[in-house]
Amino acid sequence: MNHIRRISYNPRSALYYPTLVPAEEKRLAGCLLHCVYAKNNAIDKLGWPTLDGLVNFYSEGVNEHGFFMATLRSVNLCLHAITVKYNIDRRKLPKRGESCDLAFDVFDCISDHLTGYCLNQYE
Question: What is the pLDDT of residues 50-80, one digit of tens each?
Fold first, then answer.
């Protein structure tokens, strides 16, 4: 994954700032993430990530209220952004490869938001 780079961003202009990764690497990493989400009950029966499942996954074992709330906000914002990006209809199965790409983008987005929260704790 030598070709990964982050799009520069203006925090006021958007909710999600995707990492630029070659499609093949994104698909591979995303499929692994989708499998991890599935094993941790973070997706629904059709394969779409869920708010409750992702919040539980990312906040498991953490007892700090601030981190839990940051996780809840991050997951909510990211699921909304990804739903818009992929024009998701949660009543239908994902298209071929879509669940992998989506899992990568969900992880990427939530990681960015939680990193921001954690960095702000040390300012």
Answer: 999 999 999 999 999 999 999 999 999 999 9
| Whole-number Å distance between alpha carbons of 17 and 8 | 8
Kindly report the pTM of this predicted structure.
Answer: 0.82
DSSP-assigned letter for residue 33: H
Contacts of residue 51, defined as CB under 8 A and 6 or more positions apart, other chains included, come to 75, 76, 79
What is the torsion angle, in degrees rounded to the nearest 10, for the CA atoms of residue 40, residue 94, residue 14 and residue 118?
A: 10
The sign of the CA dihedral 22, 26, 29, 32 is negative
| All residues at 6 or more sequence positions from 25 whose CB lies less than 8 Å from its CB, including other chains | 1, 3, 4
Rounded (to 5) percent helix, strand, coil in the chain: 60, 5, 35
